[in-house]
Design brief:
The chain is α/β, with parallel strands linked by helices. The protein is built from 15 helices and 11 strands. The strands form 4 sheets. It has a 5-stranded parallel β-sheet. A two-stranded antiparallel sheet has the order 1-4. The protein has a two-stranded antiparallel sheet with strand order 7-8. Helix 12 runs parallel beside helix 15. It is elongated. The termini are far apart.
Length: 399
């Protein structure tokens, strides 16, 4: 009798739709709690990447090593503000040290670039994409691919401006900071590199830019090993103006460095140019291009004029879009000229409805350089420029 009553009670309880839903919800809740608990346990054992702060303080190893931060609470890590990858441009090779003053200069060039790039990336972080800009990826659609196109150079030529302009195109997805994979992080492997890339949909192009690739001996062979079909973009600028801009960048952070003139010459009396100084060496474009042509045909390399990128940004962007096989979507309507900075800005940046100019580290006022020094540099670069014109089949008008 008692057994029959129990069975009837259970049947009555289960036959109730409300009570049945409550039981199912309780089971689903227990499963969710178990999955969350498992996720916390798994995440706490995963290796983390520790990036130096913008002040240059060492915080630990970069890849694959367990750190103290990996054992912190999962929620606090999810809420923490992400640190940008450092966007640093390095030299082709370690220049010879001539004086104590120049040693200080050369040793501090990386620190100067790091500070500039932090300022630039801080501006990037402020530009939070609007919901519509992220809608394609909010559900995890798309996949990470190795870049099909890379802006490989040159430092102080206008690579940041070109990248920002290109990111307006809906079919281009690019890393904001410089990965420095083919010059500094190659030992981390292609999968590490791929993970840095943004997700792309079918038909979209993945891009990155690291200007130091152009003057890195190993970079052409390494990129070719990844894919011989990679399209390469080089933004070039009058090498004399580029060298002065390079010096200005360092001077803004280290006002006690030697004068531009003293760093330019090995011997001022003889007028012999010191090509070991990176600011001079980078501008010998023909020398560096010769290294790339051993691995890539000229048809896979596009040369963008840094000067025309300022005077006619839409025209240069049109050439780039053609080179990448994309529809010309970025046109004159996307730009306005900023008289204060002296270069064009975007009317609407990627993921924003507001105008956007590059950060305060761009468009610095150059110091006054002795005209005789400038002329000597022009004489020095002239034969290299002529060779570069012949190699590319394009006269950039620097002489």
């Amino acid at each position: 009798m008692e057994y029959s009553l129990v069975c009837q009670s259970l049947y009555a309880f289960w036959s109730s739709p409300v009570k049945k839903k409550l039981i199912l919800l309780s089971i689903m809740f227990l499963i969710w709690v178990y999955m969350l608990y498992s996720c916390v346990g798994y995440c706490s054992t995963m290796p983390s990447v520790v990036v130096d702060s913008y002040r240059g303080k060492e915080t630990g190893s970069a890849v694959g090593k367990r750190t103290e931060s990996s054992r912190t609470d999962l929620v606090s890590r999810l809420l923490a503000k992400p640190q940008p990858w450092e966007d640093i441009e390095t030299d082709y090779e370690e220049p010879s040290i001539r004086t104590a003053a120049s040693r200080d200069l050369l040793n501090n060039e990386l620190e100067t670039d790091r500070a500039d790039d932090w300022d630039e990336m801080r501006g990037e972080q402020k530009r939070v994409p609007e919901p519509s800009a992220m809608s394609s990826f909010s559900n995890g659609s798309g996949s990470k691919k190795l870049p099909q196109a890379i802006i490989i150079g040159v430092k102080k030529g206008g690579t940041r401006a070109l990248l920002e302009f290109l990111r307006v195109h809906p079919d281009i997805r690019a890393v904001g900071a410089e990965p420095h994979f083919f010059d500094r992080n190659y030992e981390n492997g292609l999968e590490w590199y791929r993970e840095l890339m943004p997700k792309t949909l079918e038909g979209q192009i993945t891009m990155e830019k690291t200007p130091s690739y152009f003057v890195t001996r190993e970079a052409p062979a390494r990129i070719s090993a990844m894919s011989r079909d990679t399209k390469l973009i080089v933004v070039v600028r009058d090498p004399v103006t580029r060298a002065i801009s390079d010096y200005t960048q360092t001077l803004s952070k280290k006002p006690d460095i030697p004068s531009f003139e003293s760093l330019t010459f090995k011997n001022r009396t003889t007028g012999l140019i010191d090509t070991s100084w990176s600011a001079i060496q980078i501008g010998i474009y023909a020398k560096h291009l010769d290294n790339w042509l051993q691995y890539f045909p000229m048809g896979q390399i596009l040369f963008v004029s840094g000067e025309r990128l300022i005077s006619d940004p839409a025209g240069e962007l049109g050439r780039v879009q053609d080179f990448l096989g994309l529809k010309r979507i970025i046109t004159d309507k996307h730009f306005y000229f900023n008289q204060t900075k002296g270069f064009p800005c975007l009317k609407k940046a990627e993921g924003s409805s507001k105008p956007h100019c590059l950060g305060k580290t761009k468009g610095r006022t150059h110091p006054n350089i002795n005209p005789e020094v400038v002329q000597r540099l022009r004489d020095f670069y002239r034969p290299f420029n002529m060779k570069f014109y012949q190699m590319t089949g394009h006269n950039f008008g620097w002489d």
